[in-house]
Amino acid sequence: MSGRVLLAEDDGELRRLLASALFARGYDVVECVNGRELARCIDRVLAGEVGWSVDLIVSDIRMPGFSGLEVVEALRGNGERTRVVLMTAFADDGTQQAARSLGVLLLDKPFELEQLFALLTSPG
Predict the structure, then answer these.
(1) What's the CATH number where 14 sits?
(2) Is 12 exposed, middle or buried (0-12, 13-18, 19+ CB in 10 A)?
């Protein structure tokens, strides 16, 4: 599988590692440094300003600006069903329930890259 991924992670080292791994698997990766940048990028894509679409969003939950959950809530509120994987080291019951209600996949940090790729290639 390949496609365009919006990757949002405020930890620069982890973001670069994930971007490199996704690129090596054939994905085009657009990196966002925080939730505010992710929201702006999504808005530009939906408005047709960038001339490309997004196949997948991989985002941390806790980031400056907006959380990954807040961005996905806004996305879903606009009727968009783009596939989303949210990453977190703080998956309490409320976070897990919110992720499920938004139809996103949740990946607990720390994780192995193969766990991420298994989610990306799984149906649904």
Answers:
(1) 3.40.50.2300
(2) exposed
CA dist., res. 42 & res. 24, Å (int): 23
The model's pTM is 0.94
Q: Quick check: 4 and 41 in contact, CB under 8 A?
A: no
On whether the CB atoms of residues 92 and 70 are closer than 8 A, the answer is no
> Residue 35 sits in which domain range?
4-121
CA max distance for the chain: 38
As a whole number of angstroms, the distance between CA 54 and CA 36 comes to: 17
Q: Is the pLDDT of residue 1 over 60?
A: no
Q: How many structural domains comprise the chain?
A: 1
